[in-house]
Structures are given as structure tokens and as C-alpha cells.
Specification:
Chain A is mainly α. Chain A contains 34 helices and 2 strands. Chain B has a 6-stranded mixed sheet, sandwiched between helices. In chain B, strands 2-1-4-5 form a 4-stranded antiparallel sheet, with helices on one face. By secondary structure, chain B is α/β, with parallel strands linked by helices. Chain B is 39% helix and 24% strand. Chain B is globular. The chains are: A mainly alpha, B alpha/beta.
Chain lengths: 873, 252
């Protein structure tokens, strides 16, 4: 009656394993899907397979593997050196590896020279070698940066030591091994065991690390059996096959293992001198560890689901994530951090030799000082035995546990009477804010990522670079920068995924009588406040430890806190623009490059906090604020169309266009200036003005060409190049208004110059600037002056008033548009002229606001330039 | 149609994805206080039309208006008047049913007391009470539909847009839903729902539109539709004849 064959254990295993591989490959490939709309006729979100993507993936994998090797190599080199040193007393003098090598050579040569019979020759060569040795020691001492007396004292000490003990008086300095090689594993008996035990200690981390990471992070929700498991459970395969397939998957499909641990173990055996054989040895060791870890993971997963209920599981999952991450970072740190490595080696020294035989690290004996063929056989045999034993035991135990069902408490709600929970966890918060905070409390993974991960990362850096603590508590610039960076890190996992989290639930937000962008703004605001509190707390703690606080500390604190609040919006803006709202597979919803963009922006702002220059701080403040504004203008344009795969918002000029034009102007100016500077025949004034004008002209032409090709409606009017309508202000009146505002700005500049002349330091500052030098020369040709006065304003006004001001004006009132465009205009000018140029910016923007025609600000600007030029003659 | 201006006006509505026409030149009107059914086979464009009414999708051409307001441009105002029940509601992780109801109400501008007052009887009728303290993601399909229905009716909207409302509901809940629909209509609210259950449409509505392959195949009251085929056909026969014609027409 039943036609099909029963499926054997191994066949089932093979099929399910292959399924897992196929799924994982598909998932990696779909991560690279870019476009919002796939081929519309098919309306699918699946990326087609392509060789281009495969090559890219392979390349990426190769880089990651190389990284693993690199790290392992450096770490092992250092540990080996430490192990060498730890056996001997600490009164050896530390020198670099190169120096020590050469000292050994020197000693050998000098000893050989003793056998020469010819006195003269001997003296000559001895002298040579002695001078060589002196040079070595001098080079070594110079690098330490001691005072003159200190240097001499050290040199004397080194000489005395060499006389007494030769090269043995010197040991290799920590950190000076760049690469481990076949000689790194200490050969001598005792240090060899120390090294092996050090590695043994380190390797103890691996198995718990895998288990914690897998249980914590790879399971979407530990409490719910994966639907795939339930689905597979419905096939006529034995439970044992099902569990075995999971064991295989956990053991073999574990990218962190293959990226970090596999190279490490290969390097361990390579440094013991096994050459090419270290690859199969490393493979064997990695497989051993991963199968052990895989069996234990599978068993634990089954046990936990059997004996714990949903909320306990959730808490445990978060704990696993934290512990796993800490282990991973500890492992990585131990390859870099001196205090940690010294600690490891110190502890290893205290351990008895029998420690080397513990089941998690005994295979290291293959590299150790006692390694023989017999050892290899024993070790190999033991490995196979332990692995098969553990796997089988885990399988049987798991099978026994689930013989009565998969879960303790079940999935879909079945209608049991529940206790009424009276209070809400958010109390006075309403609406969106309440929602986000409830989510934070209940989603343990999010909680860990947002609250704990920043601290772990900071802790890691402290561990690796111990001077960070002193710098953070000694210098408030550092403290403020650190508070800002930590705040931004918090935002990366809370504000940036604000749209990613709305996977499939976006429909509900769209049923409310509120613009989606306004809902997103409110969500961002919640996270901004949250991050501000976090950063504020850190700032207070660090301020407590800082002894000497300047008034400038207040400025730094303000900048840091303002930055955290602002960057909440930048993070969310970037996140929203980088999220594909139609994609439901979580990992392909978000473009990972956006994270890098965000990190670059954070770094730029952090530099601004750190630098003492007030002008830079102000410039960065203005730029960041305008950037945030431009981003959200785009978000507001795009958000009604988020769920539509086909339609896009109509292209309108915005602040982003203005900022990109200003950036292009700045860059082109620099490029032309550099280019002209190569022509030394050209006078400086001509170079500057020509660079200026050409850059402006190019930007002008390019912008108009681009806007025309994008078919922006009424582009000439919106930019101000033609009047809005025939009945608008007559040209004559426009010109008069322009002249008036220009004169006012020039007057302001004159006042400024007079005030500056009054204060001696400022007067010197003014005289120092290049522009003054240029302006005061009498031999500037007339045409050049005309160019500066007339042509430059034309293009500058187009960019800053036509684009930036109008872009701002589209979404905000005239006041902010005027201030914003004037501020941007001011910061692209040299520091000395910031204030009068800001005044000019205000004047031109106001004249544009009044007339709506670019002629007015152009005339105003030209008037200003003419006046300034005239004054300086 | 009575003298009152139609509540829902759809004129030449089209939605095109590349070369695929999901909805093509659909025009219909619904007057206030009526129950309107949108019938059609799978893939006919019912959900697409509804999403255009909700402003989730942007029409390629044509207009959709609710109470004189354009569904996309004035979507915020439209949402005040509309309650929406999607075909497969998905809710936030980690939120209980009661919290989702509260959130919905607050987003529509109601305070907690009002929310409790309005939803109490509805929850009892739908037998949701016990489930509300459970996380919504753990609900069965029918429970999610019921929860979404409560959220849709919470702010007492003038128009209820329901996408396959009884899909997933057990017979008890289905009967309650039918009662609710009739009560709302009697109170002057308008109901617009899509379905492919012909007997449900036949029982409940006053006006019917049949779509197939994105095009409107027939539109009018049951009597008007009968006039097209024969005087005593059931809706089922009308549907097969009308939609069958469209279904056999090759796509352009």
C-alpha cells in the first residue's frame, strides 16, 4: 500500500545537510540584492545567481581568512616570546628581536675570533665587531626616548651585561615579533610546556564560545522551535536522523570557527615547525573542537527547551549572547593585549604539566616539546574516540528527552485562561514612545545590543590599549569624544534600524491618521533621548575623574551631547534611506554599507570635538546639522512611497542638492588651485581668482545639465534664474534692493574691519591672511578684479542662494532658511572672514527672499566685493 | 444610488508594474451606508485596489477618492475616516494583544478610558478576552484577524475596508462578523470588503463589483447583475459567466 521506500538514517542525514547548505548559500547570495524593484514583471525579491556575485563572495572570504591568519601569527609570536622569557629571571634587558639576533651573532663571532692566532688581525676584527655591537646598542637606546643622562646610564648597563653574560643577558621585547615562523614554539623543555599550557588555556575558551554564540545569536528566538524543525519533524524520518542533521549543521556550518579558529590552529602547528602538515593538523583539531561544540549545542538546545519556559529562555538567550561576545573579544584581545598575554603566560606557568591532557586542549601536544610519532597516534586515537563518544551520547540523550514532545510550553495560543496583568510596563509614556520602550524591555537581544554592547566594545579597547584609561580621565577632550562615540554606537543599533524593525508591521503604522515620516521622527526622538541619557551618564562619570576642568570643558560637553542628539537623526535618516521596506528577509533588508557611512560621519564629528580649533568645531556643527536636515527632507519625500515597488516621488530640488553643489565647488576649487599652482609663471592672485571662477562655472553648468536631464519641473524658477511670473517685481526695483542689501553688508564688513584693527592680536591675525596680501597689491590687472567682483558672485549665489537657500525654504520658514544658508556660506570661507561673510550671507538671502530673483543677491554680492576691494586699496 | 454624494469614488484607477497590469481602468462608486463587495478570483487585483485606497500604493493613473479626499495626497485625513483590516495581519513581536489595541487607540487620538469603553463589548463578542494578555505573535490565524478587526473598528470610522474578512475565522466568529457588518451599515457606516466567498457576498451586500485579471467585469446591485445573465441566477452562476469571460480573454 505504501509505495515509497523508507528513508535510511544516512540518506536522511545527507538530504537535510544538503538542504541546510543550499539555504545558507541562497541567504548569502540574497544579501547582495540591491535594487528596490527587482524585475517588475516577476515581482520577486530573489536575487538571480550570477558569477559576479560568487567571485565577490569568494574574494571576501579570502580576505577574512587572511585576516585570521594574520592575527593568529602576531599573537602567537608574542606569546612565544613571552613564554621564552617567563622561565628566566626578570633582570634581563629587553631589546628588539632584531637586536637580540645580531647580538647573538656578534657574540659568536667574537668567540670565534679568540681562536685567531694573528694578534693584529684579531684586534682589527674585534674592534670592528665591538663597534658594530656599540652601534646596535646605541640604536636600541635611542628609540626609548630617554634623556641624555638616562641614555648614557642605560648604555653602560648594557655594555656591562654583555661583558658579563654575552647575548644571554638580553631578552626579546614584547610586541616586537611581527610574524611567527617555524621557530616560534620554544624548543627548550620548560618554556615549551609553558607555551603549550598557555595555548591550552586560550583554547579552553573556544568550545564555550561557540556554544554561547550559537545559542545566543543564531537562533532567532530560543523559545520557539524553528518552523523548519517542526516541518522536518513531519517527514517520515527518525528523530535520530533529524537531531543528527542538526548536530552536523552546528558543527560544520559555523563561519566564525572557520574564520578565526581554523587559521589559529593551523598557525599553532606551523610555528611548531610542521610546515605543510600543519594544515591537516589544524583541520583535525578544528573539526574535533567544532564537533564537540556542535554536539553540546544541540543537546543544550533540546534540554533548555524541555525544561524552561518562554521568558526564562529569552533571558538565557540574552545571557548567552553577552557571554559569547565577551569570550570572542577576550580571544581576540589575547592576541594583542600585553597585560592579558602576560596574565595568561603567568597562569600557565603555575599549572602542573598534567593540565596539558585536558580533553579540550590535549591535541596541542602534537606541537609541543614531547611530540613523537607515538604521541601523534595516541592523540589521534583519543580525538576520534572522544568525538564519536560525545556525539553519540549527545544524540541519545537528546532523543530520550524529546520522546514526549518538543517543547514544554507551546507556540500558538490555544485558549487557556490567563491571569490578568494589571499594570502596563510603561506607565506615563504614550503611543510611539511607549511602544519603543516596551520593545526595548522585552526584546532581550535588542536590550543587550543597545545597552551592553557599547560597554563591551569599550572594555575591549581598554584591555588592548591600557593608556586609554589615563587619557580619558586626564583630558576632558578625550572624555567628551569618548562619550560621543559611545552614544553614537548606542544609536547604531537602536536608531539606525528604526525602519528595519518594522518588517511586515508597517501596514499598521500606515492605518493611523499621521504621516509616516512624522511617526518615524518620533521614534527617532525616543532613541535620541535614550542615547543622550546614556552619553550624559558616561560624561558625568568621566568628568568626576577629571581633575582639572577648563571652561572649554563645557563647550566640549555641549558639543558631545548635541552631537549625540543630532546623530540620532543622522543614523535614523541613513538607516531609513538604506532600508528596503519591501524585503522581508531581515538580513537583506538593510544595506550594510550604510553602517560604514555612518561610522565615517561619526569619526568626522568626533575629530571636531577633539580638535582645539573653535572654527573647525563650528564648521562641523553647521555641516552636521544641515546634513541631518537634508537627509530628513529626503526621508519625508520618500516615505509615502515606501511600500510601493514601482512608483517614486517626483524629483524636487532639496537641500541635499545644494550641499552636494557646495561640496563640489569646494573640491573643484582645490583641484584647480593645485593645478594652477604648478604654473609658476601665474601670479598668485590670478591663480586664486581663476580657480574660484572656473570651479563655480563648472558647478553651475553641471548642475543645470543634471537638473535638466532629471526633468525637474520649473527648474529655472525654483533656482531663481528667472522670475517667478511676469507680474513679479520689476527688474529695476530688484537691482535697487540688491544694491541696498549689498551696501548694508559692506558697511557691516567695514565696521568689522575697524573693530579688528582696534585689538592688536586680531590686527596681526588680519594682516597675516593671504587674502589681505593679495588684495593690497597694486599690480592686479583690472580684468582680474572685475572677474573677482562680478563672475564669482554669479556662481556662488547660484549655489548658496539658488540651491541651498531654496532647498531649505522648501521645508522650513524663511528665518531658518536664511540662517542656515548664511552659516554654510560662512564656513566655506577662511576663518578670518567668517563673520563679515556671514553678514553678507544674511543680506543676500534676505534680498533673494524679497525679490525671488537671483539678480538681487548677485548684485548685493558684487557690491560687497567691490567695496571690500576698494577699501583695501 | 440615493441623492447623497458617494463616499468612495474610484475613477479609471490603474496600477502597472513594468509591463504587468495589476489593476486596469477600474471605476466604481460606493454610497454611504451601503455594504459593498469586491469579488474576484485569486490575483484579480482586489488587494492592490484596496491598498491604493489606503494610500499604501500609489496609482499609476486614475484617482481614488474617499469622502472627496484623494487617497494618496490627503491620506492622513482619509485615515481618520477609514478602518482597515488586512488579509494577513502581522503584529509586533513582544507586544500583547491588549497593548496593541491600546497603541492603536492612542495613535487615533483616543485616551485609555475611551479605548476600554469602546472595545469592551466588541472583545466580549469576539471572545478575545482571554487571549489579550498573550503576545500577539503567538496567536493563531483567526485570533490575529479578530485582533486586527478590533483595531479597525476602534475609532468608529465612517468607512470600513476589510480585505478577505472571514479568511481564517471559525463559524462563530464569522457569524459575529456578519452581525457586526449589518449593525454598522444600519448605523450609517459604509462597509467595503473583498472576498471570494460568493455566498457571503450574496447574503450581505447591496452592491457588488466583480474584477478579474485587473479589469472590472461587472458592477451593480444583485438585480442589475442578474439582468445581465438570467433573472434567477445565483451569484455563483453570474460570477462564473462574467469572470469566466474576462478570464478567458487573453492578456494584451
Amino acid at each position: 500500500m505504501i509505495d515509497s521506500q523508507p528513508v535510511s538514517f544516512f540518506r536522511a542525514l545527507r538530504l537535510m545537510g544538503w538542504l541546510a547548505v543550499r539555504r545558507q548559500l541562497n541567504r548569502w547570495q540574497s544579501l547582495q540584492l540591491r535594487r528596490k524593484k527587482a524585475d517588475p514583471a516577476k515581482r520577486t525579491g530573489t536575487a538571480p545567481k550570477s558569477t559576479g556575485r560568487n567571485i565577490y563572495s569568494i574574494f571576501l572570504l579570502a580576505i577574512l581568512l587572511f585576516n585570521g591568519f594574520n592575527l593568529a601569527s602576531q599573537g602567537l609570536g608574542r606569546l612565544g616570546a613571552l613564554a621564552h622569557n617567563v622561565q628566566t629571571s626578570s633582570d634581563k634587558i629587553a631589546v628588539s628581536a632584531y637586536t637580540r639576533e645580531k647580538l647573538v651573532e656578534t657574540e659568536t663571532q667574537l668567540r670565534r675570533l679568540q681562536e685567531l692566532t694573528d694578534q693584529d688581525e684579531r684586534q682589527k676584527y674585534e674592534g670592528l665587531w665591538n663597534r658594530y655591537r656599540d652601534k646596535l646598542l646605541e640604536n636600541e637606546v635611542e628609540q626609548e626616548g630617554l634623556s641624555e643622562d638616562g641614555e648614557n646610564a642605560k648604555l653602560q648597563q648594557m655594555h656591562a651585561a654583555f661583558e658579563k653574560d654575552g647575548a644571554k643577558a638580553f631578552s626579546v621585547k614584547f610586541g616586537s615579533h611581527l610574524f611567527a615562523d617555524g621557530e616560534t614554539w620554544p624548543r627548550a623543555e620548560a618554556p615549551g610546556m609553558v607555551f603549550q599550557n598557555t595555548l591550552g588555556l586560550l583554547v579552553l575558551l573556544f568550545v564555550p564560545m561557540f556554544i554561547c554564540l550559537w545559542l545566543g545569536m543564531n537562533n532567532k528566538d530560543l523559545g520557539q522551535v524553528e518552523w523548519s524543525f517542526e516541518w522536518l519533524y513531519g517527514f517520515p524520518v527518525s528523530t535520530r536522523a533529524l537531531l543528527a542533521s542538526r548536530l552536523v549543521i552546528y558543527s560544520l556550518f559555523n563561519p566564525p570557527v572557520w574564520m578565526f579558529i581554523f587559521p589559529f590552529l593551523i598557525m599553532v602547528f606551523y610555528t611548531a615547525g610542521h610546515g605543510l602538515a600543519s594544515v591537516p593538523l589544524g583541520l583535525a583539531a578544528t573539526l574535533y573542537l567544532s564537533v564537540l561544540a556542535g554536539s553540546l549545542t544541540m543537546l543544550l538546545e533540546v534540554l533548555l527547551r524541555k525544561f524552561l519556559n518562554l521568558s526564562q529562555l529569552k533571558n538565557l538567550q540574552a545571557l548567552f549572547t553577552v557571554t559569547g561576545t565577551i569570550f570572542l573579544l577576550l580571544y581576540l584581545a589575547s592576541l594583542f593585549s600585553q597585560p592579558l598575554e602576560t596574565f595568561l603566560v603567568g597562569e600557565a606557568k603555575k599549572l602542573p604539566d598534567s593540565f596539558a591532557w585536558n580533553p579540550l586542549s590535549f591535541y596541542l601536544a602534537l606541537g609541543g616539546p614531547h611530540a613523537t610519532f607515538a604521541t601523534a597516534m595516541t592523540v589521534g586515537g583519543l580525538m576520534v574516540l572522544i568525538v564519536t563518544g560525545t556525539a553519540a551520547a549527545a544524540l541519545m540523550l537528546a532523543e530520550y528527552c524529546i520522546r514526549e514532545g518538543l517543547l514544554k510550553s507551546a507556540g500558538p495560543y490555544q485558549g487557556n485562561r490567563q491571569r490578568k496583568v494589571s499594570s502596563s510596563p510603561t506607565g506615563w509614556l504614550r503611543g510611539i514612545a511607549a511602544n519603543e520602550m516596551v520593545l526595548l524591555q522585552r526584546d532581550r537581544n535588542l536590550l543587550v545590543q543597545v545597552l551592553v554592547s557599547p560597554l563591551i566594545v569599550v572594555g575591549y579597547y581598554f584591555l588592548v590599549n591600557s593608556s586609554m584609561i589615563s587619557s580619558a580621565t586626564g583630558n576632558f577632550h578625550h572624555a567628551a569624544t569618548m562619550a560621543f562615540v559611545i552614544g553614537s554606537y548606542v544609536l547604531m543599533s537602536s536608531a539606525m534600524p528604526v525602519l528595519v524593525r518594522e518588517n511586515k508591521t508597517l501596514w499598521q503604522l500606515m492605518t493611523f491618521p499621521r504621516e509616516l515620516s512624522s511617526i518615524l521622527v518620533e521614534k527617532t526622538r525616543v532613541w535620541a533621548v535614550f542615547a543622550l541619557l546614556y552619553a550624559g551618564a558616561i560624561l558625568l562619570i568621566l568628568a568626576h575623574f577629571n581633575q582639572h576642568l577648563h571652561p572649554s570643558a563645557l563647550l566640549d560637553a555641549f558639543l558631545a551631547l548635541y552631537g549625540v542628539g543630532l546623530y540620532a537623526f543622522i543614523a535614523a535618516g541613513i538607516g531609513i534611506m538604506g532600508t528596503n521596506a519591501l524585503e522581508t528577509e531581515v538580513r537583506s533588508r538593510f544595506r550594510a554599507e550604510m553602517v560604514y557611512l555612518y561610522m565615517i560621519l561619526v569619526a568626522m564629528y568626533a575629530v571636531a570635538i577633539y580638535t582645539p580649533s573653535i572654527w573647525s568645531k563650528f564648521a562641523q556643527l553647521v555641516l552636521s546639522t544641515l546634513l541631518a536636515y537634508a537627509l530628513w527632507q529626503k526621508v519625508r519625500d520618500v516615505s509615502p512611497y515606501l511600500l510601493d515597488p514601482e512608483e517614486k516621488p517626483a524629483r524636487e530640488l532639496g537641500l541635499a542638492d545644494g550641499m552636494m553643489a557646495a561640496l563640489a565647488f569646494f573640491v573643484l576649487q582645490g583641484l584647480f588651485g593645485f593645478f594652477f599652482a604648478q604654473h609658476e609663471s601665474m601670479p598668485l592672485a590670478m591663480q586664486v581668482v581663476l580657480a574660484y571662477v572656473l570651479a563655480g562655472f563648472l558647478v553651475f553648468v553641471l548642475c543645470l545639465a543634471i537638473f535638466a536631464s532629471q526633468k525637474i519641473p520649473r527648474v529655472w524658477q525654483s533656482v531663481g534664474l528667472s522670475r517667478v511670473s511676469a507680474s513679479a517685481m520689476p527688474v529695476g526695483k530688484t537691482v535697487v534692493i540688491g544694491l541696498a542689501y549689498g551696501a548694508a553688508a559692506a558697511f557691516g564688513a567695514m565696521v568689522y574691519l575697524h573693530v579688528v584693527d582696534l585689538v592688536p592680536q586680531w590686527h596681526v591675525w588680519k594682516e597675516d591672511t593671504e587674502m589681505s596680501a593679495l588684495l593690497r597689491r597694486d599690480d592686479n590687472p583690472l580684468w582680474l578684479c572685475l572677474l573677482a567682483v562680478v563672475a564669482a558672485p554669479l556662481f556662488e549665489e547660484f549655489i548658496f542662494r539658488g540651491l541651498v537657500f531654496q532647498g531649505l525654504r522648501r521645508s522650513t520658514g524663511p528665518v531658518w532658511a536664511v540662517l542656515g544658508s548664511a552659516a554654510l556660506f560662512a564656513i566655506v570661507h577662511p576663518p578670518f572672514s567668517v563673520i563679515p561673510v556671514f553678514g553678507l550671507g544674511l543680506a543676500t538671502a534676505l534680498s533673494f527672499q524679497r525679490t525671488g530673483f537671483l539678480l538681487a543677491p548677485i548684485i548685493a554680492h558684487a557690491t560687497y566685493n567691490a567695496c571690500v576691494l576698494f577699501i583695501n586699496h | 444610488m440615493q441623492g447623497a454624494a458617494p463616499l468612495v469614488e474610484i475613477e479609471n484607477l490603474s496600477k502597472v508594474y513594468g509591463s504587468f497590469e495589476a489593476v486596469k481602468d477600474v471605476s466604481l462608486t460606493v454610497s454611504a451606508g451601503k455594504i459593498f463587495a469586491l469579488l474576484g478570483p485569486n490575483g484579480a487585483g482586489k488587494t492592490t485596489t484596496i491598498r491604493m485606497l489606503m494610500g499604501i500604493l500609489v496609482p499609476t493613473s486614475g484617482t481614488a477618492r474617499i469622502d472627496g479626499l484623494d487617497c494618496f495626497r490627503d491620506r492622513v485625513e482619509v485615515k481618520r475616516r477609514v478602518g482597515y483590516l488586512p488579509d494577513e495581519p502581522v503584529f509586533y513581536d513582544y507586544l500583547r494583544g491588549s497593548e496593541i489595541i491600546r497603541f492603536s487607540g492612542e495613535m487615533h487620538g483616543l485616551d485609555r478610558l475611551e479605548i476600554t469603553a469602546r472595545t469592551e463589548s466588541l472583545i466580549t463578542r469576539l471572545e478575545l478576552g482571554d487571549a489579550l494578555e498573550e503576545f500577539a505573535v503567538n496567536y493563531s490565524k483567526g485570533m490575529k484577524k479578530k485582533l486586527a478587526l478590533v483595531c479597525a473598528m476602534l475609532h468608529d470610522p465612517a468607512l470600513l475596508i476589510l480585505d478577505e474578512p472571514t479568511n481564517g475565522l471559525d463559524p462563530f466568529a464569522t457569524r459575529v462578523l456578519h452581525e457586526l457588518i449589518r449593525e454598522k451599515a444600519a448605523a450609517g457606516k459604509t462597509i467595503f470588503f473583498s472576498t471570494h466567498l460568493l455566498d457571503q457576498a450574496e447574503k450581505l451586500c447591496s452592491q457588488i463589483a466583480i474584477v478579474a485579471k485587473g479589469r472590472l467585469a461587472a458592477h451593480g446591485t444583485l438585480e442589475e447583475l442578474r439582468a445581465r445573465v438570467s433573472s434567477d441566477s445565483s451569484l455563483e452562476e453570474i460570477f462564473f459567466s462574467v469572470a469566466g469571460e474576462s478570464n478567458s480573454t487573453p492578456a494584451p
